[in-house]
Amino acid sequence: MSRQDETRAGLRFFGRVSASVSHEIKNVFAVINEAAGLIEDFTLMAERGMPLQPERLKSAANSIQGQIRRGDAIIKNMNAFAHSTDEDVREVNLVEGLALAVALSTRFADMRQVKLTMGECEPVSMVASPFDLTRLLHSSIAAALDRLEAGDTLVIGVRPEGGGASFSLSSPGKDGPLRDDEPFADLARAMNASVSVNEKTGTSELLLERAGSSE
């Protein structure tokens, strides 16, 4: 892939994630607007002499507070994603990197009615491009989701492996949900990453080698 093609692929990924986040924020506003409308209705009813029902007011207020917390989490994730472009490479906490990729992929999983969750994670870090790492993990999750069905669960973890790291992707009752790196082969090669399947455990492994370890 040429440098220009790689740049465009990165921009398309940034745009896809940004569009997804904007949809999530729009949904948060919609729920808040609905709850505010209910409070207004209760107020009008009270002005007409009908008794206020505190539990209904409390429920509407709790809904607004819950959506504000949800919106705050979405904005924090988007902020972290935006700052992943600040440096070409740096020491990256891979557990935090995986958590961010999972958070940014949750809406895509929800649309497929697949539960996406973090599994066992061991502390591990390595020098990498934060943006490319997020893109690699997001692409891996998307490829795994394509092989799952509504009602399935995708569990992702990470552990140190040979100076690098291994990300595990599994779905209870299913074979390894990620069979190869075909959907993101160019990016995988650029990051010294490869995919394998442990047939005994039915777990897919995304191995990320430490830079220079294959030389």
UniProtKB/TrEMBL annotation:
Q: Which GO terms describe its molecular function?
A: phosphorelay sensor kinase activity
What top-tier enzyme class does this entry carry? transferase
Q: Which residues cross the membrane?
A: none
Q: Which domain of life is it from?
A: Bacteria
CDD domains xref list? HisKA (cd00082)
* InterPro entries referenced in this protein's UniProt entry, alphabetically: HisK_dim/P_dom, HisK_dim/P_sf
> Which catalytic reaction applies to this protein?
ATP + protein L-histidine = ADP + protein N-phospho-L-histidine
Instruction: Tell me its EC number(s), please.
Output: 2.7.13.3
**What is the protein's given name?**
histidine kinase
| Species this chain originates from | Pseudodesulfovibrio indicus
